[in-house]
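ok posting inputs for the flavin-adenine dinucleotide job
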Amino acid sequence: MAIDFEFTADQEAFRAAVREFLQREVAPVVAEMDEREEFPAASVRRMQQEGYFGVPIPEEYGGLGLGKVGYCILLEELGKVDASHGTIVGAHTSLGTTPLLYFGTEDQKRRYLVPAAKGERLLAFSLTEPGSGSDSGAVHTLAERSGDRWILTGTKLYVSNGREADTVVVLAASDPTRGPSGGVTAFLLDKGLRGFSVGRCERKMGLHGTSTAELLLDHVEVGPEQVLGPVGLGFVVAMTALDVGRVSLGAASLGGMEAAAAGALAFAQQRVQFGAPIAQHQAIQFKLADMAMRIQALRYLVYHAADHQDRLGTDPARWGREARHDKTREAATVKCLASEWASDVIDQALQIHGGLGYIRGTPIERAYRDARISEIFEGTNEIQRLVVARDLLERGF
Ligand SMILES: Cc1cc2nc3c(=O)[nH]c(=O)nc-3n(C[C@H](O)[C@H](O)[C@H](O)COP(=O)(O)OP(=O)(O)OC[C@H]3O[C@@H](n4cnc5c(N)ncnc54)[C@H](O)[C@@H]3O)c2cc1C
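and the output
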């Protein structure tokens, strides 16, 4: 464990630049985006131009080279402003670019990772299916060999960025007899391939700026150069990406908590009832104190896990068994605690706003709707507890 809790001057400068950018380019469009339930194409374009879709990717592959800590700084700041933009970046970066960076061939990195990091190509990640959610290894989409080529057939569900993405990392069963251990393979599927289409896009409680799309694969044919990672090891590819995603989701939840708590504090100091600002009432103070404690604890958890991932590096072949287990347990812990604490902090912040917190269009009302999904996607919190418990039973506390 490396114990150095200071951000570097470069990291602080990056945070300041992101904060200024988000206030200028993203904050003004969020309320209308939420109301119209539209993908925020213009602000996403500006973020891509700024390099924010390639923050943890090394500069040699077109990214900003700021590692997972830099990436979590971006997600934390995004979490303060808008969860939809955070999800769009997260689906692309954690789930789309991680498999390419960690498992891609040099050719795939040149063809996909470089344009993705530069913001010229949007990615998505597709594991979930109608019959396979938490039991994510039970993939039914079939990938059948035809000579040295592959034919993919099936239906994928709930794909963030699924409508807009240029390329999707799709998990399919290459050997249904083997299941997740050896029977699932990851593929890079480009939009426009014959037989590959977008189906229904869901309407949702929150995250109104994101698409959550069904993808239909009707005998989609690709060559061997579209296989991402070793044949049969797609489940490892997916879980590795999810470890990154769960930590960055924790960072986004942290940002959401910080914004909600700051809003509640400001409101409590100016809202007068019974002749005094409500912040003078101890019941309100206790709520604010609980928020502050969770924010402080989560900050350490998130950045410790991100720093650990940076120290491990991006070549899975070099990770020892213990480090691999630590990483997965940390990611599950961060994701689970962050999402539950965020839901609770945002709920209490809404309570402090009284009736105003329930009025459509207030930032806290949107935050409340947006936060709930973090307990569900990237693996439900029941699954995170299973991950931690299984590791406990194997390795102890
Ligand atoms: C807005 C949104 C965006 C998403 N984005 C993506 C994406 O980009 N890519 C992608 O692949 N997927 C995505 N998903 C899918 C998401 O990851 C799944 O919905 C999630 O993993 C849960 O699967 P499920 O919905 O099938 O629920 P189920 O697996 O059916 O679970 C239902 C309930 O049973 C519980 N449960 C299941 N098994 C167990 C068990 N063994 N022990 C205890 N409890 C259990 C679950 O925790 C849950 O509470 C997205 C979903 C949404 C809603």
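notes: The longest helix spans residues 234-270. Residues 9-121 form a domain with the Butyryl-Coa Dehydrogenase, subunit A; domain 1 fold (CATH 1.10.540.10).
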